[in-house]
Design a protein that fits this description.
Radius of gyration: 18 Å
Number of helices: 9
Order of helices and strands: EHHHHHEHEEHEHEHE
Strand order of the largest sheet: 4-3-2-1-5-6-7
Structural class: alpha/beta
Distance between the termini: 26 Å
Number of strands: 7
Largest sheet: 7 strands, mixed
Strand content: 15-25%
Helix content: 40-55%
């Protein structure tokens, strides 16, 4: 079912606005934050080199739209197992400063500002762990985040996830739950992503945009006559 104001139950607002939904990796930033984080961990001696070999194979599956996200998260969260969140946060802060900030697309900041000036609400939905997505979103000036929840027991990361994984159809499921918790009724929605894995999300929103699209999403966007934005090049609007 596409996004409509009826999606939200029992909500009130006097001045409805639009909701702008952004994917994170390869959309707002010129890289995959989870992959960069894994390399960062290996470089700092916090994870074995074998992690990168395993991750490369799984990211190949991601590009094809065949990734088993549960297996991916289990493998890539192993370095966090047994660690306290505040310790990981210190590492993440260093990672964002050194690696992520330089990778932010200037056009992404322009688009976020465009929505902010219109009075739109902005939400990031990512298939990356919340330990990375939330602080990256904060750097981008975005407060609303849907990401993969990391399980904790007695204040320690277990290396497992919890809840619905915000991946493929899971992004739409998590979005519907998020909408039900909001005190806003939206006029409509914009959606931005680079990946064929986000086709369920882009089909759900009113105004889908293929941003820096992978080949499969680019082909689909052209067939559907969606707007394509390529922030990897100077002339960023292709249609």
């Amino acid at each position: 079912m596409p996004f409509t104001t009826q999606t939200i139950m029992n909500t009130k607002i006097t001045t409805p606005s639009y909701l702008a939904i952004f994917d994170l990796d390869e959309t707002l930033i010129a890289a995959d934050s989870a992959s960069l984080w894994n390399h960062f961990l290996v470089e700092k001696g916090l994870a074995p080199v074998s992690l990168l070999t395993h991750e490369h194979a799984m990211m190949t599956a991601y590009a094809k739209g065949t990734l088993d996200m549960t297996s991916y998260m289990t493998a890539t969260l192993e370095p966090l197992k047994g660690k306290k969140p505040h310790i990981i946060k210190q590492r993440v802060d260093d990672f964002i400063h050194e690696v992520i900030t330089p990778a932010i697309y200037p056009q992404a900041l322009d688009r976020i500002e465009w929505h902010q000036k219109r009075g739109d609400h902005i939400l990031i939905i990512s298939a990356t762990g919340e330990h990375l997505v939330k602080p990256i979103a904060a750097v981008l000036g975005i407060n609303n985040v849907i990401a993969i929840h990391l399980e904790q027991k007695e204040g320690i990361y277990t290396g497992k996830t919890t809840g619905i994984l915000s991946f493929k159809e899971g992004k739409v499921e998590r979005l519907k739950l998020w909408l039900q918790q909001q005190n806003h009724s939206y006029k409509g929605s914009y959606g931005y992503s680079d990946s064929i894995n986000d086709l369920p999300l882009l089909n759900f929103v009113n105004k889908p945009f293929a941003v820096n699209p992978d080949p499969m999403l680019a082909m689909h966007a052209q067939m559907q006559e969606w707007t394509i934005m390529d922030w990897r090049h100077a002339n960023n609007i292709l249609r």
